[in-house]
Write a structure and sequence with these properties.
The protein is of the alpha+beta class and 419 residues long. Helix content is 36%, strand content 24%. The strands form six sheets. It has a seven-stranded antiparallel sheet. The protein has a five-stranded parallel sheet with strand order 6-2-1-10-22, covered by helices on one side. The chain is elongated.
Length: 419
């Protein structure tokens, strides 16, 4: 990789998402000469898409709870988060001239809820710092020790002192995160866990009648109980959506890691829906068994428990006629209705991806197999729920990678360290 032996060091950042942009900023702030390459016509495309429904930057819950959202990889991510956690992310956004507020769910948003003004201010700062942008440059690996790029003008080879890879995971290929980097790194002896969908929906074998009638319907105020791969019970309350072929939405996304792992192990998994989470089992049983006169059971459930529409349809879909007619079984099912999930939706439909470069193969952010090559963001083997957790970790890792690249170069290429 070596192209020079004294500052300013020449660093390539490959990938123009949040992790790559932050890596470029951190390296430039340390005095490096930075060039950023991306295969797309412009940077931050997935970032902008995420902002269409309101740009969720980070989360304002307590820090220990925040770190715990990264589950099994929390300890791996914590060093970067300690240096650039939720509050520092907010401070950085404010430094770009964008105000923020904390929503009712503790999610943090720009005051105008938009991603584009934040990205514009960020890119202006990067250009002021001297970062050079090369669009429509698709990285294709290494050739004779140089970085190879496919460009509109043909193949280009470039040499740098260090490289930061921030190419994203495998979701939303049309926005640039296509996972094409996996074989390139595996070919260099880097261990990469298979990419898998995260924050994704799941397929259910609905009947044609149920699917045609309720696809697109929101399940508001339900709770889901599920089991993770270790046999532990997980329960969440919120909202989800019935799709033509299954279920999706925030409540499902929050459980997607556990559900995906169970399906990988068993070939399927079951979730249990509580259609009346504000009522106890005893209260539901009391209301279901209350005399209803000439009213149908469906009308009775609507008047006594507010169960109607898609919730009523789910009971009909998932219970046999005999179980629906049995008041005790019906009451039990309202609080614990089994729904069998058969597969996660394809990775390209997922909000994010799991899998990636194994943490055991890196020192800090640098690949052990490839000194001078650093990785950040969704390329690494971690996942997190939506709610600002994904973006915060990508920013924190990008900052760490940029700073570590300069630090490594100072330790290896400064004249006093050259024999």
């Amino acid at each position: 990789m070596t192209n020079s032996s004294s500052p300013p060091f020449h660093i390539a950042v490959i990938g123009g998402g949040p992790a790559g942009l932050m890596a470029a900023q951190a390296a430039a702030d340390q005095g490096a000469q930075v060039e950023l390459f991306d295969a797309m016509p412009s940077v931050g495309r997935k970032f902008l898409l995420a902002g269409r429904g309101g740009m969720n930057i980070t989360h304002a819950e307590g820090y220990q709870a925040f770190v715990s959202r990264y589950a099994r990889q929390a300890n791996r991510l914590k060093p970067a988060l300690d240096q650039f956690g939720p509050q520092k992310v907010r401070d950085w956004v404010h430094g770009l001239g964008v105000d923020t507020f904390v929503g009712s769910s503790n999610r943090v948003f720009p005051t105008d809820m938009k991603a584009a003004p934040l990205l514009r201010a960020w890119l202006h700062r990067l250009r002021e710092a001297g970062v050079q942008f090369h669009m429509r440059h698709r990285w294709t690996g290494w050739q004779d020790g140089q970085l190879a790029f496919a460009t509109p003008d043909g193949e280009r080879l470039r040499s740098f002192d260090a490289v930061i890879l921030a190419l994203g995971g495998g979701s939303w290929a049309r926005l640039g995160s296509d996972g094409a980097w996996v074989p390139l790194l595996q070919g260099q002896g880097v261990a990469v866990a298979a990419l898998a969908p995260a924050n994704c929906g799941f397929d259910v074998d609905w009947s044609a009648h149920f699917s045609s009638r309720y696809a697109g319907e929101h399940l508001a105020t339900v709770a889901i109980t599920a089991h993770d791969i270790d046999g532990l019970t997980v329960k969440r309350q919120g909202q989800c959506v019935i799709t033509a072929g299954g279920v999706e939405g925030g409540l499902i996304y929050a459980l997607s890691a556990a559900l995906r792992e169970q399906i990988a192990l068993e070939g399927h998994t079951t979730i249990w829906l509580d259609l009346a989470p504000d009522y106890s089992h005893e209260r539901v049983f009391e209301e279901v068994t209350r005399p209803r006169g000439a009213r149908s059971m469906s009308s009775h459930l609507q008047s006594r428990l507010g169960i109607k529409g898609v919730k009523s349809g789910l009971l009909r879909e998932c219970l046999s006629a005999a179980d629906f007619a049995d008041e005790a079984r019906l009451a039990a099912a309202i609080k614990l209705l089994p729904v069998r999930l058969v597969r996660p939706r394809p990775i390209d439909e997922a909000i994010s991806s799991a899998g990636g470069v194994a943490f055991d193969g890196i020192d800090g952010c640098m690949l052990r197999a490839m000194p001078g090559v650093f990785v950040a963001g969704e390329m690494l083997d971690w996942e997190a729920p939506t709610g600002g957790y994904l973006l915060t970790a990508c920013l924190a890792q990008g900052k760490a990678a940029g700073e570590q690249a300069v630090s490594w170069l100072e330790g290896t290429l400064m004249p006093d360290n050259i024999a």
